[in-house]
Amino acid sequence: MQDTPGPNGVIPLSAAELIELLQQRWQASYDLQLVQRRGRLYLQVMWGYQEQQSFPLSRDDYEHHIAELVLVLNSLGVQDDVRGWLQACTDRPRLGKALSLPLDLPPGRASEFVL
User: Fold this and answer.
1) What contacts 78, CB < 8 A, 6 or more positions away?
2) What's the DSSP call for residue 29?
3) How many CA atoms within 13 Å lie on the side-chain side of 27?
4) Domains along the chain?
5) Angle formed by the axes of helices 79-88 and 15-26, nearest 10°
6) pLDDT tens-digit profile of 65-107?
7) Considering only CA atoms, which of 17, 12, 10, 79 is closest in space to residue 43?
8) Cα–Cα distance for residue pair 26/9, rounded to 1 Å
9) pLDDT exceeding 70 applies to what percent of the chain?
């Protein structure tokens, strides 16, 4: 399920699409986090997932968290990078080891996130 292209011709990512990509790849709704390290911004697929009994977020809270993350990813213009990576990634998150996608931000955008 994809939206119509935005002003720059890129189809925005939706929370439902992102959750679907996670479920298609790993049959689980993994937690996602944006992490800034050494002047770079990364999207990390964490080892905890929503279907896990010990997962700290309710379904609604998880979907809200992913929706907020999607807004940031779309505003950074990295939605196609995220789609492609999630479709091609062959590894899987393991306890204590997140998967990391380094985000290539347009010039000027990195300074919004990197201190």
Assistant:
1) 43, 103, 104, 105
2) -
3) 0
4) 15-112 (3.30.428.40)
5) 20
6) 999 999 999 999 999 999 999 999 999 999 999 999 999 886 6
7) 79
8) 29
9) 83
